[in-house]
Amino acid sequence: MTHVLDPGTLAAGTRPGPGPGTAFDDVTRSDAALRAFLHGLPGVDQVGAEQRAATLGTRSIKTTAKAWAIDTAISMVDLTTLEGADTPGRVRSLAAKARRPDPTDPTAPSVAAVCVYGDLAGVAKEALADTGIHVAAVATAFPSGRASREVKLADVRDAVANGADEIDMVIDRGAFLAGRYLEVFEEVVAVKEACTRPDGTGSAHLKVILETGELVTYDNARRASWLAMLAGADFIKTSTGKVSPAATLPVCLVMLEAVRDFRAATGTQVGVKPAGGIRTTKDAVKHLVLVNETVGADWLSPDWFRLGASSLLNDLLLQRQKLRTGHYSGPDHVSVD
């Protein structure tokens, strides 16, 4: 069973929306007020969420719809490399694949973004110039988030200065699980401010990684989603991909319900990015069905839904080739990432 937050819970006579000077001002004024709000959100029916996600995951789609789904999923991919052994050459190779995923078929769409560590954001930016493909950079002491706030903010500013269009930050899960919600909120607000470009041309979009595998419960996932959105997140993201379990359908369902309810209450739309463990076309299609059935077509766009993955693109391309030619290509049809 799903629940929509009653807009009547917002303070009367104030402007709706996240951030200072809005209907949530009182909610974020103190740790006690924020805790009361977050713990006052409707609880998640664990059995119901898992059953609904499982049911939607069994939906079959027709061939024409599958072709659309594959191309849509490709256009939503944040093509990712987050390894200590990453080199400028590897990032350039990934950028080339992002621009032209299937060199044999120019009709294949490009991906949404290339996601790298902040020190390589400049390499990706140069390689993707004039393509419309975004450069996402992980920051705030990714993946653990174990650093001082000053270090985290310097990490963000460095990535933005290097050319990152999007920042994927991690929340302090230790502070969240200890109930220090205002501390987490204020850190997200500070990171959002640090996303401002030094040349004054705007700000990098902020994706807030909840690391739901460490939050343990669906109630915590819902609370963390709302906390991040209240602090100004442009996207909420399930995972770093470094912790298991990462993206699961029930967790994605909970987060989609949160962005749906948040828009109903505030008028502000926030994106969702599941990441980690999404490897096959079937996985991607299940997520698209979940989006369509939970929040609707408004979110079926790379502007509002992303798939964080490193190996998913290859399977999407192989399945796309199968639909186009009637047979599977050999293993050399796609590049090795």
List the helices and strands and how they pair.
Layout: H1 31-39, H2 46-56, H3 63-76, E1 77-80, H4 88-99, E2 113-117, H5 121-127, E3 134-139, H6 149-161, E4 166-170, H7 173-177, H8 181-194, E5 205-209, H9 212-215, H10 218-230, E6 235-237, H11 249-266, E7 271-273, H12 281-294, E8 307-309, H13 312-325
Parallel strand pairs: 1-2, 1-8, 2-3, 3-4, 4-5, 5-6, 6-7
Helix pairs in contact: 2-11, 3-12, 3-13, 6-8, 10-11, 11-12
Q: What can you tell me about this protein's structure?
A:
The longest helix has 18 residues, at 249-266. The protein contains 13 helices and eight strands. The chain is of the alpha/beta class and 337 residues long. Mean pLDDT is 91; it is low at 1-21. Helix content is 44%, strand content 10%. It has one domain (26-327): Aldolase class I (TIM Barrel, Alpha-Beta Barrel). Strands 7-6-5-4-3-2-1-8 form an eight-stranded parallel β-sheet. Keywords: Lyase, Schiff base. Pfam families: DeoC. InterPro entries: Aldolase_TIM, DeoC, DeoC/FbaB/LacD_aldolase.
Q: Characteristics of this structure?
A:
single chain; 337 residues; alpha/beta; TIM Barrel; 13 helices; 8 strands; 10% strand; disordered N terminus; schiff base; Deoxyribose-phosphate aldolase; lyase
